[in-house]
Amino acid sequence: MPGLRGVSAQVQALLAAAARRVPTSRLRRMVRGLRRLSTPEGRTVWLLERSRRVDLLQPSPHTWEERYPALFDALAERLAHFPQPRLLSFGCSTGEEVRALRRRLPDALIDAVEVNPRSIARARAAGSDPKTRYIVADRPDPAARYDAVLALAVFRHRELEGYAPSSCAGILPFASAAQAAARLDAVLVPGGWLAFANANFCLLDLLPDAGYAPEPERFGVPEAVTLYGPDDMRLSGEVYTPVLFRKPAS
Ligand SMILES: C[S@@+](CC[C@H](N)C(=O)[O-])C[C@H]1O[C@@H](n2cnc3c(N)ncnc32)[C@H](O)[C@@H]1O
What we know:
Elements: H1 9-21, H2 24-36, H3 40-50, H4 69-78, E1 86-90, H5 96-104, E2 109-114, H6 117-125, E3 132-136, E4 146-152, H7 158-163, H8 174-187, E5 188-197, H9 203-206, E6 213-214, E7 244-246
Parallel strand pairs: 1-2, 1-4, 2-3, 4-5
Antiparallel strand pairs: 5-7, 6-7
Bound molecules: S-adenosylmethionine (SAM).
């Protein structure tokens, strides 16, 4: 273990001995945790992860501009006949997704729901937009209605991706994801579009009776690598994971 400044040789020897007993994967996880706590963003995520009042899915706010251009284009094409489509960007992080949608749908009304208040503050600071509402919440308003809902890189967890445990139960149980998916389904109008990608679950498993029709194309979104089924167990083999779905018209 490299020397730690200001820590006595005895304590260093104790730490080194302890490190030898901890499995490397756990040690790596601990180091990653400590690194996260060293930034304000990391501390906000850490607090959210420990909050009992929030139904947190993916804790990481990682996003970037134009992350899914072909999918955004496809959605805009399908909504082109609406004078003012209503969109929900669920888990919008710092607003890059919302700005990508705005470029394609200048008249849309966009609700951007995000559980991380620090991310929402950054999204708001990036510029005002009278037709976008940034909302700090862990679920959509049940009274709202949308013509399209996006849930991209939200129904996943960095620890499922990073460690691929055989069960997701202790990290993000299937039942929690299914409840969150049902809340999105409830606010999407019949005939509406759901973009659901970059997830550790298949939408058709989460909402088996809702009758969603998948589009065959993947719009450049990579296949999910770690997937879990209704029994919380990791799925093996090839699994078909479409990314754009239409809700039945009635
Ligand atoms: C990896 S980011 C995805 C951002 C963007 N959608 C994208 O694909 O680039 C996942 C975001 O989902 C948010 N999130 C997780 N659980 C949520 C929940 N229950 N309600 C709203 N946002 C949530 C996290 O705070 C995080 O900012």
